[in-house]
Amino acid sequence: MHSFLICQGTTKTRREKVRHLIARLRAESGNKSELIRSDPDTFILRPDPTIGIEAIRGIISSLKFKPFRSKAKIVVIIRADRMTREAQHAILKTLEEPAPNSFLILETRNQYSLIPTIRSRCQLMLATSPSPRSTIRGEAVDLARSLMEPSLSLRLKAVGEIDQKEAKARLRQILMLAREKMKLDPWWYQVVKLTHQAILDLDANVNPRLTLEHLALRFPQDRKGNDRNRGNS
């Protein structure tokens, strides 16, 4: 695996895990330098205040060249959740098919602040053990974000991946999340209403697949996009 996603924990524990991973990768690639900042084969990208598509394209372009000192190049993206939507999509192909002589490390507090396709292409490394509550909340945020996708095919794909036996439990996760967020943002009321109705339909023995597809068709599309879930998730 050439792509890593370091998340959860505190800023200190995440950065420490990043440093340890860099040290291990550098040692494995024959780089004996102890200074990361002066290493021409290690790139660290930080938000200012976000990370745009041009910055990502620059990193991708630099990976096309051979390393200077070691056998591999290492790219670290600090606060990867600050990547714009366009930047996240731009890095997907590199994460999926990285150069054989390169490694990518993404660091963020919450892995669910990144689009699902990025997470699926990275080896997840936790800076701390997640609590059951945070795991459930993360799953709810992930599903809600997928249901907000402008593309109907992506929304149907998201519900199509849900085990029908777990449909009610997954909808209850979204309902709990929406009720919590509704306290600060009235927009979530429509999510509460639709999700609650879907749960009632399941209680009435309506076909789970039809219920989920109906929810995907009617799920409210936020004009702000999936960013409504970002930051406080």
From TrEMBL:
Stored SUPFAM superfamilies: P-loop containing nucleoside triphosphate hydrolases
Highest taxon above the source species: Bacteria
A single GO BP: DNA-templated DNA replication
Name the UniProt record assigns to this protein: DNA polymerase III subunit delta
Highest classification ranks of the organism: Bacteria, Candidatus Chisholmiibacteriota
